[in-house]
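Hi there, hope your week has been kind to you so far. Do you reckon you could talk me through the fold, stretch by stretch? Thanks so much in advance, here it is.
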Amino acid sequence: MQRLPAIAALAAALALAACGDDDGVAQPDAGAPAEQAADEPGGEAERESAAPDKEPAAEKPGTEIKVGQSQFGEILFDGDDQAIYLFDKEASAKSECYGACAEAWPPVLTKGEPVGAGGAKQSLLGTTKRDDGSVQVTYDGQPLYYYAHEGPGEVLCHGVNEFGGLWLVLGADGQAL
């Protein structure tokens, strides 16, 4: 019977080790569909030419932010159920996570206005421009991030101290848990 607590402690240590102390390189999500170039077969250009009588598609809505259940209670996720974090080192909407930091903790980016769903407050959603010109989603004035090595529904890295600050999940009220 003493093996169960030891196994649980080992599993917790491995989960934490996955958040830090890696090579800092984000791995592509093998489950994510690859985007086709507009000029490739089946790409956007082919879809547009196949239906010339249709009107051009309206601008896509921005990244969806919603509330979901986790082992920490209700927290923010994106529309694909990826857990969302804030970096407590940041005191404003200006991101301080670039280079190796952004590889391990990719920013939550959007191409349109972010959309609140499932309990996320639209009034707390905003954006900030990153140094490369991309647009990062903010919530209650905090830039939002993913952890690169988590799958949908996983929350492995809450409370991790890395890159000079804590990475924390946040609730619908915008407060870190």
About this structure: The longest strand covers residues 64-70. The mean pLDDT is 78.
